[in-house]
Design a protein that fits this description.
296 residues, alpha+beta, five-stranded mixed beta sheet, three-stranded antiparallel beta sheet, 7 helices, 10 strands, 14% strand, flat
C-alpha cells in the first residue's frame, strides 16, 4: 500500500513537471517571441540594431567608443561617456566601478615596480579630475572642477594634529596633499597657517583628518556625464551639455559649419521619457551616423 502511494505521488510529480515544462519552457517563450514580432515591437525585440548599407553598425540601446586603435578619440565624431564595462562598452562585462563619493584618496604603489603592476590605486575623485582635464584639452574648454587640482588629481589634504570631541583637528601641526606625490608642488601653499607638503611615496597619512578642498571652480565647463561612467557601463546617450562642447571640434574636423552640426544635435536630442522621467539626452551613435550622412 505504501509503495503504491509512493509511485502515484512520483507519477503525479512527473506529470506536473512535464506539463509546466511544456507551458513555461516552450509555449510561453514562443508566445512572447511571436508577440514581439508584431509591427512596432519587432525592432526593439531584435535589439534595436542599426544598419548602414546592410551592415549592422551597432544598437541604439548600447553605447560604443569612437576611438582609433590606440584609444584616442576620433575628432570627427562625438564622443561617448566613459565606460566601466570591461575594456569599455563590453556587453559581456556590464558593470559599474562600485566606487562612491567618499573614494577620494589615491593609493600610491611601489615606485620600484612597473607602473601597471605596482599596486597603485587611483581614487574615483582623481579619476574624474583626470578625465576632466583630458576632455577639456580635446574640446578647448576649461577642465577646472571642484575638489580637483590643476594637474588633474583630487585636491585632498591630510591634516595632522590634536582633535576636539567631534574628531576635527583644532591646531594642525602638519598638512599633506595626499594625492600629490613628491616632488609635486602642492596645490595650495599653506592650510590654516601650516605649510602644505607633498606626499612621500608609500607613506600612510591615515592618521590625519582627510579634508577635500573645493577650490574656485564652482560650475565646471565639462559636464558630469563626460567624466563619470553609467551604472551599466553601456549608456548610449550623452547630455545635451556634453554634446554642446563637442560641436566646434566635430565641425572643424569635418570642414562644416558649427550651425550644421548644432542642428543635428538638436534633431537627435530626446526629451524626458513621458515628459518627466530622466533627463534630455542625445544618442551618440545615431548622431554620428547622421554626421556621416551630412558628409565632410
Amino acid at each position: 500500500m505504501y509503495f503504491t502511494n509512493l509511485v502515484r505521488q512520483h507519477v503525479a510529480a512527473l506529470r506536473a513537471l512535464l506539463v509546466f515544462t511544456v507551458i513555461l519552457g516552450f509555449a510561453y517563450p514562443i508566445g512572447i517571441w511571436l508577440f514581439a514580432q508584431l509591427p512596432g515591437l519587432q525592432d526593439k525585440a531584435d535589439g534595436s540594431l542599426i544598419e548602414v548599407d546592410g551592415q549592422v553598425v551597432g544598437s541604439s540601446l548600447i553605447g560604443q567608443a569612437f576611438t582609433d586603435p590606440d584609444g584616442n578619440p576620433l575628432p570627427r565624431y562625438f564622443q561617448s561617456r566613459p565606460s566601466a564595462a570591461g575594456d569599455g562598452y563590453d556587453p559581456l562585462s556590464t558593470s559599474a566601478s562600485n566606487l562612491g563619493p567618499e573614494d577620494i584618496v589615491d593609493t600610491p604603489g611601489d615606485p620600484s615596480l612597473p607602473a601597471d603592476d605596482n599596486g597603485t590605486k587611483t581614487s574615483l575623485l582623481s579619476t574624474v579630475c583626470a578625465r576632466s582635464i583630458a576632455v577639456a584639452e580635446l574640446e578647448g574648454v576649461s577642465g577646472a572642477r571642484p575638489f580637483c587640482t590643476e594637474e588633474g588629481v583630487g585636491a585632498v589634504l591630510s591634516v595632522i594634529g590634536p582633535r576636539d570631541a567631534t574628531g576635527n583637528v583644532t591646531a594642525p601641526t602638519r598638512v599633506v596633499s595626499v594625492n600629490q606625490t613628491c616632488p609635486a608642488k602642492p596645490f595650495i601653499p599653506t592650510y590654516q597657517g601650516v605649510r602644505v607638503e607633498c606626499a612621500e611615496p608609500g607613506a600612510d597619512y591615515a592618521i590625519g583628518q582627510i579634508v577635500p578642498v573645493a577650490g574656485p571652480a564652482a560650475k565646471p565647463a565639462v559636464p558630469a556625464d563626460a567624466v563619470t561612467a553609467s551604472g551599466s557601463g553601456l549608456d548610449p546617450h550623452i547630455s545635451p551639455a556634453y554634446a554642446a562642447i563637442q560641436v566646434d571640434r566635430v565641425a572643424a574636423a569635418r570642414g562644416v559649419s558649427p550651425d550644421q552640426v548644432r542642428a543635428l544635435v538638436d534633431e537627435h536630442t530626446e526629451g524626458r521619457t513621458l515628459g518627466f522621467l530622466g533627463e534630455p539626452r542625445v544618442n551618440v551613435l545615431q548622431l554620428n551616423l547622421a554626421l556621416d550622412r551630412l558628409g565632410g
